[in-house]
Structure formats: structure tokens, C-alpha cells
Design goal:
It is a single chain. The protein has one domain: Creatine Kinase, Chain A, domain 2, CATH 3.30.590. The protein contains 16 helices and 13 strands. The radius of gyration is 21 Å and the shape is globular.
Amino acid sequence: MGQEILDSHFSEADFRRFQERLVAETALLEQWLEAGLLDGGESMAGCELEAWLVDEAGLPSPSNAAFLAALDDPMVVPELSTFNVELNARPQPLRSGFLSALHDELASRWSRCQQVAQKQGTRMVMIGILPTVRKSDLCLANISAMQRYRALNEQVLRMRGGEPLELDIQAAEHLRTRHHDVMLEAATTSFQIHLKIGAERAGRAYNLSKMISAPMVGVSANSPFLFGHDLWEETRIPLFEQAVAVGASDYTRRVSFGVRYVKDSIAECFRANRDRYPVLLPQLLDEPPERLAHLRLHNGTIWRWNRPLVGFDEQGHPHIRIEHRVVPSGPSVMDLVANAAFYFGLLTALLEEEPEAEARLPFERCKKNFYRAARQGLEARVEWFDGREGTLAELCEQRLLPQARRGLERLGVPAAEAEPWLEIVAARVAARRTGSRWQRAWVKAHDRDFPALVRAYLECQESGAPVHRWSLTC
């Protein structure tokens, strides 16, 4: 859940004082990390699900204020646009039962959201990019009523010297357009997976999360269409990177895969935040330095595809979380939990089985894998450890799914609990049927009637079945 702020206009003195507090809080975090003072207890799993409100025609419905008021659930909050919302799940200990608990909570909250939406004449849809969203929908008239979002728009345009944002995505078709505000970001919705982990292992977990970003985006791709164009398997990746572009290189871009692995400590990411990224939202907060409020607000304006976070438990103890941001929203709750099972299982196995992973998969190769997977999905050719090559589908079938099974076993998840979730991913890979593939197959069978595509998608989604079981006649 993003931090709200009080103002949207700032003075030079605000930026200077905020930077001073950011420097002090970064130094304090470094001291805590060096002294081993962060929570090193049981690892925890969590998630955030971003979704769309649509009308009966399948078009975006800018009605989240009325929807949230009627829902009255603190775990469901606004997103950037008035046709998006975010559902949150309570953290679960990473042990037997956690996948079922995540599923049950998400399914229950999703069902309640659907009931409230339907009473208001709308429907909820989880999808990476809504095929019916138009440029005209992505305007400041549809920005959510939070100071944070208005300030973000003002500051991004300030850093760009008032120049419009350039969107340029090349694939079989080529989309090139300009936009005069940050509302392009509202077209991207994701399923963000959170891992709370001991600080001493956070750096390796961060690196390994980068490595498995390619298979994760490949097995979960669900964003092929934007503004009527057929683009990447996961078009959300280039769209989000360009939607808030204020830097000329990966050292200063607010959305990026990064420039290297962590070497010694997760503190390196927060030092990079302090040194490389200009402050966007210099809201001065009346909190003690020990709450790291300015560090966390600044970190919230840097959207690495894998992002380290600092959080606090109910007793005020700080901890590190890794936020894995590459997975799109949808197609079903079962697909989402299956993706989480694959992530947690694979990451756990790699932490235990691959102590030299960073040397065996150099960062530049890891980065190329990610963008190839976003472009081409399961058919992308990637290089894995020690230069081994193959398609993502082959890599998943031959190596990564078996490793994920071993990882869940290491977490104490019995095979009878783990297998149904990993079988969803395995079936998706075997059928080459991701959300993106289903959408493209539907369009091939029914032409480019995107409102009809959204209605068919909703019908399949409401069945509750994972996407590999969806037919083209939903």
C-alpha cells in the first residue's frame, strides 16, 4: 500500500531538508544492517493484486471512489487511476499451509469485490493490460483523489522540463505515441509477490529474484495488447518503464531491471537510492528517524522490477522484504497462487542449491533473459547457468519446475499441497497457454473486437478455472 502525502507542491527548501533526512536515515539503516538488528525470524509470504473496474461493455469504469466506499475494506485501496484498485493479502509464514491461506484470502476478497462491483453496475477484471483501455481514458480527469498521485505527475513532468512522455514499443506491430502525464502507468496492473527474509540472506534473495524474473514473466505473461496494437507477450514491461521515464540510463531510470547484482549487502540498493535517484516527493514527515519514513517514501518512487523494501511489524521491529514485481495481474486467482508457488519454491531451492549462482549466470545475461522473456514469452531462447541455452519452456520443464518442487519441500510444504499449484504452471507450460496466448488465440478466432474479448475473458475468469483450461468460446 503506497504512502499518502499531505502536499503536492514543494519548495527548494523541502527538497534540501528531505535529502538531509534521507541521508541520515540511510546511514541509520546501514548501522542496523551491520549490527544485525533487523528481524531475522521466520520468512513470510505476502502479495498485492491490482485490478480493473469495467462497465458492461468491457470498458474502463472510473468509479473506484464509490466502489471502495461501498466495499469498506482497509485491505482494498485506490490505485493511480479511478478505474483501478489494489487488493492486499495478510502475510503468511512460509511453511505448510501458506499457499492455501493465500488462495483462500484472495479468493474471498475477490468474491466480495465482485459482489460490490456488480451492485454498482460494474465488474472486476484481473489482467495485465485491459485491451479496451484507450489513450483518452488515461487522463488526469481519471486520476485517483490522492495527493501522492498528483504530486507524482507534477514532479515527473518537472524533471522532464515539461516535455511529454514518449511511448515507443516495437514488436510485430509498432506503437509510437506521446502522452502529457503519468497516467500511462495506470494501464499496467500486476500481481506483486512479497518475501520477508532475514537481512543476511536478503542480498542473495534479491539477486536470485532477478535471475528467475525471466521464467516468472514467461510463465505468467498476460499483456499482449495496447491501444489496438499486438506487441510483446508482456507489454506491461516496456509500458511501465516508459510511463515515468525521467532518466537517460539504467542508473537513473525510475523503472528498470537494474545495473548489477548486490555484492555484499542489501544496503547497496538503498545507497543507490540516495546517491543516484533525485527526490521526487519531498514530503517532510513528522516521524522519528527510527521509522525511516523518508527513506521508505523515496524508495516507493523507484520501481525496480525487483525492489527491496523496509517494513515494520506490529511491535515496531524493522525487517527487509523483497517485492517481486514482474508478474502481471490475472488470469485467475488459481493462476496467481500457482505463480507464487513457483516463485517461492524456485527461490528457496536456488538459495540452498546454487551458492555460486551469480558467477554462473552473469548479470548482463540475466538481464537479456528478462527482456527476451517479456517479448517472446515461453518461446524465448535464454541462457541459464554455465551458458546452457534453450527456450524458457524447456528450461521450466527440465530444470525449474523440479527445483521449485524441491524448494517447497524444503519449506515443509508436503507434496500433496504443493503439487496442485505447480501442476497449474506445468500444464500452462506444456500447453503453451498463458494469458497472453489465450488472448491472442481468441483474437485470431474472433477478430479484433476488444470489448468482446474482455467480456469473454471475464466469463472465463469468473469460472475460477486456471487459464490453461479456458476455451475460446467462453
